[in-house]
Amino acid sequence: MKTVGLYSFNDIPSMHDFWRSCGSDRLEFWVLDVKAMSEGQLEDYCTRMAKEIHSAKEAGFEVWVGFQTNFKVSEGDTPWYFSLFHPRNQVEMEAREAILRQSVAACGEADGLMMFGADPGGITEDLGEGKLEDYLLLTERFVQVFRQVLPEKPIVINPWALSAFATPDYTPWQACFWQRESEMLRGLLADENTVNASVGVELPCHDYYRALTLRCYEQEQVQPDPFPRKEELETLKQKGVERIWSWPYFLLDECDDGDGAGGGVQLETRYIHQLLTTLRQLGFNGVTGNWSGGGAYTRAVNFYAFARMAKDASLTAQKAIGEYARLLVEEEWAATVEGVLRFIENDSNWHKKMPASHQLPAFDTPFASSAEALAALNKVQWREKAPGEFRLPEAPEAFGKRLKLRLEAMLQKEG
Questions:
Q1: How far is 68 from 292, CA to CA, in rounded Å?
Q2: pLDDT per position as a tens digit, 268-324
Q3: Which of 314, 330, 353 corresponds to the end of one domain?
Q4: What is the pLDDT of residues 81-105, one digit of tens each?
Q5: 279 and 363 inside one domain
Q6: Is the confidence at residue 157, as pLDDT, over 90?
Q7: Reported confidence tier of residue 413, pLDDT bands at 50, 70, 90
C-alpha cells in the first residue's frame, strides 16, 4: 500500500514511536467541534487540536482531520451525538458551517481534510425523508467551506454508515441496511460533482470483511453484490481520483456488534491479512486501521501485523506473529511465544462471530489446551526492550503478563 494510516479520536504521543516502528505513515483524527461548541469549549478545543496536529507532524506523520457532518449544538439533556439537523434545513446548515469554519481554520498544519459520514450522524425519520441527495448536498457545502478556508488542502470523503442518511431507518442488524449502503455508495462514486480528480474517497468495504455484515447476509439468505468492485475503482482512477483508500473499522480494535473481546489480548491477524490481500486486488492505494486507548496494549500485535502486511505484500500473518514474538524474547523462547500468540488467535472473538462459511482455518499450534500454553509461557524469559530501534508500546514483560491473564481467562472458560 502506498500509505498506511491509523485513525484515532485524538493524538497519543506516547505511541508515536510504536506506530512509526510498525510502518504507519499517516494519522487521522476526528474533530468533535460541535460537541465542543455544545460544551462552550470550542475555542479551547481548537487550540488543543492544533497542538495535537503539530505534535503528530513533528513526529513525522502525515496528518488528516475528519469532521462531523449534520450535527447541531445540543440543548438541555440531549447528548451531542443525538443532536442532528436535516441537510435541507438552511438555518441549521449555516450554523454548522459557522462552527466548521472555525475548526477548519485551526487545522492549518494538517495535510488533508476529510468529511465523515454517519454513526453518529445521518437522517432519522423524525427529521423527515432522507436520501443520498441529502448527503451529497451536505458534502457540497462542506467541500465549499474546506476550499474557502484552506484552499490548498487535499480533500477526502469518508462515507462511513452512509445508509443512515436514508429513510426508513434500518438498523445495522438487517441485511437491507448493508444492501442500501452499497447502493448509496455506488451512487456517491457515480456523482462526478462529488468524487473527482480533486476529491478522493476512503471506503468502508463492509462486504469483504465485517462479521456483522456477513452474518446479516447469511442469516437472511441474501446474496450480496460486494462493494466496491474492481472495475468501480478503475473508473475512479480513470477520472483522476488520486486517493482511493479503505477504512475497515473495528477489525484491529475489535468491538463490532456493540461488544468487545473481553478486554484481554486479542489477535485477528488472519483476517487482517485476508482483507489486505483483497484490498490490493481491488485496487486500493491506501488503508487506515483504527486505534483506541483501550486497544493500545491489548491489540498491539494486530496493529503491528496490519501495518507490516500493508507495507509488505509477501508477509503472511504467521510470519508477522513470529516477528512480533522475536521483539519480545530472544530466539530461545520465540517459538513458545509465537505458539501462544497463535493459540490465542484461534480463540478470536471476531472469528467466532464470523459466519461459518467465512471462517478461516485455525493456526497450527503446539498447545492442546490453555493450561499447556500457560505452563509454557510461565517459563519464558522476556527481553528488557525490543532489539534495535524498534519501540514497543510497553515492556515485553508487561505484555507477557497480559498474555497470562488472557490464557487464565480462557482456562476458566474451559472449566
A1: 18
A2: 999 999 999 999 999 999 999 988 766 778 899 999 999 999 999 999 999 999 999
A3: 314
A4: 899 999 999 999 999 999 999 999 9
A5: no
A6: yes
A7: confident
Residues 302 and 403 in one domain: no
Q: Answer yes or no: do 297 and 353 share one domain.
A: no
In this predicted structure, the answer to whether residue 254 has a pLDDT above a threshold of 80 is: no
- The three-point CA angle 237-242-246 to 5° equals 90
Whole-Å CA distances, 23 to 122, 136, 302, 324: 34, 35, 13, 13
Residue 47's pLDDT band (cuts 50, 70, 90):
very high
Task: Report the number of distinct structural domains present in the chain.
Answer: 2
Percent of the chain with pLDDT over 70: 97
Residues 210 and 117 in one domain: yes
Residues 247 and 370 reside in one and the same domain = no
Q: Please report the pLDDT score of residue 400 as a whole number.
A: 97
